[in-house]
Design brief:
With about 240 residues, the chain is of the alpha+beta class. The chain has two helices and ten strands, in the order ββββββββββαα. Strands 1, 3, 5, 7, 9 and 10 form a six-stranded mixed sheet that branches. Strands 2-4-8-6 form a four-stranded antiparallel sheet, with no helix packed on it.
Amino acid sequence: MVATTTTAMTSSKQLISVQPEELKFQFELEKQSFCDLKVTNNTEQNVAFKVKTTSPKKYFVRPNTGVIHPWDSCVIRVTHQAQREYPPDMQCKDKFLLQSTIVTPHSEVEDLPQDTFTKESGRVIEECKLRVLYVLPNSSQGNPDGDSLDSSIRGLDVPGNLSVEDSQALQRLKQERDAAVQQTQQLKQELDMLKRRRLRKSNAGFSFKFVILVAIIGIMLGFLLKLSFSSPAPA
């Protein structure tokens, strides 16, 4: 991960940290794969982020823009779209850029100006560059006869009478299960974020209505007092 800034930094500490520091995708023809990035806010202020890539048609990023509260974190899921052919030498030249900048307190995604991540905004913007790696699923690193299985398969707790194909199928099922669990956790996180936004908006709406009500009551009281003082005294 390479961190740079578009303007001078006031502190050597990075606004955010990203794990892992590179995107690894299991490459299979005509199959999607994904990689989760955990982005952590290392400051006491709200930090906005935006994800960019050199190949936007090959990837689906969710969320690609967001605001992380102080010392909080979020998970960005990057999905690699299904491909119909293998890349040359299984090498990927795609790159990702994660931009981050400090924003005002209580800012949300919909509140961010369009120029938040541009040089013209005058903000200090950090940039983290992430490279992409392709990994072949169930790649054997044993002898040429194929007697040994991939280390991930050998690490599975499965009966010894299973064939290589059955072990590989079992591993794929476990990977799909883990992916479903991670997706459920991400959906819960997004739901909690939506609840917090609604709560803030409802509180803000209540405060505004309360101020209007107090103002109306004050105007009415002033009007009544004015009438009482301006009315003629009885003879």
